[in-house]
Write a structure and sequence with these properties.
Blueprint (H helix, E strand, L loop, with lengths): L46 H16 L4 E3 L6 E3 L9 E6 L8 E5 L2 E9 H5 L26 E2 L40 E2 L6 E2 L6 H4 L3 H10 L17
Parallel strand pairs: 3-6
Antiparallel strand pairs: 1-2, 3-5, 4-5, 7-8
């Protein structure tokens, strides 16, 4: 197993995070995405940006981590001291999707800082498919900005079907499928189920309950049938 905490010595008073020599890591992207709209870069209006950067770096520095694994494919990514901070993107979730997601405090509540690599966001390395047989939609992270952080769970932000809106306790709908929240971050908030009254992060479910694992897809492909042609390989690190 890859060592998630790089405890190697560094210069006294220096940062444990690397400084980018260039941006060649992003050259694999389509040409239209190699710009400051799709990749977070340093800018002059950096007050809010600097708060985000300091939040990420200070939390990982506390854990003595200058590398972080992707929650989907488990590939290790270096954390850089300036934007773009990572060859992927960070996000905060109320769920700890894998043990590598570190506990942090944001907006007064406990949550977990996680990361997804560029390959999984683009769908090159991992393709996540909805577990609901009547849906089967693929999760798409290709529009997310690289090198920064989202303050909500990126897997829960756009529910693809009614199963994503069900109570984690009684499995009844918490909200109607035609009802949508105004903000992506609303799906990462705690709400009460109108049926059983349980308060939970109902829309931010564990990955293994939301998407098909490799084992699921192998089993379904073995059965054959028309639907097997739609199945794609998915790797859920928590199940691996």
């Amino acid at each position: 197993q890859a060592n998630m905490r790089d405890r190697s010595r560094h210069d006294s008073g220096g940062s444990i995070f690397l400084r980018r020599n260039d941006y060649s890591a992003f050259n694999v992207l389509p040409r239209q995405k190699i710009n400051s709209y799709h990749i977070k870069m340093e800018d002059e209006c950096s007050i809010g940006n600097d708060e985000t950067r300091c939040f990420i770096l200070s939390n990982y520095a506390t854990h003595k981590m200058n590398r972080v694994p992707c929650v989907l494919c488990n590939s290790m990514m270096m954390i850089f001291e300036r934007y773009p901070l990572i060859d992927g993107t960070f996000f905060v979730s109320p769920r700890q999707h894998t043990p590598s997601c570190i506990q942090v405090k944001a907006d007064g509540r406990v949550c977990y800082l996680s990361a997804v690599c560029m390959g999984c966001l683009e769908g090159w390395t991992t393709r996540l498919q909805c577990r609901n047989g009547n849906c089967g939609k693929l999760w798409d992270g290709s529009q997310l900005i690289l090198g920064t952080m989202y303050s909500y769970d990126i897997f829960a932000a756009v529910p693809c079907c009614a199963d994503r809106l069900k109570c984690t306790s009684c499995s009844q709908l918490v909200i109607h499928p035609e009802q949508r929240f105004n903000f992506f971050s609303d799906y990462s908030q705690t709400v009460s189920c109108p049926h059983c009254g349980v308060q939970d992060f109902h829309f931010t479910k564990p990955l293994e309950r939301t998407f098909l694992s490799r084992e699921d897809i192998t089993r379904l492909n073995a059965r054959g049938g028309d639907r097997s042609n739609q199945l794609s390989w998915a790797r859920i690190t928590a199940n691996a």
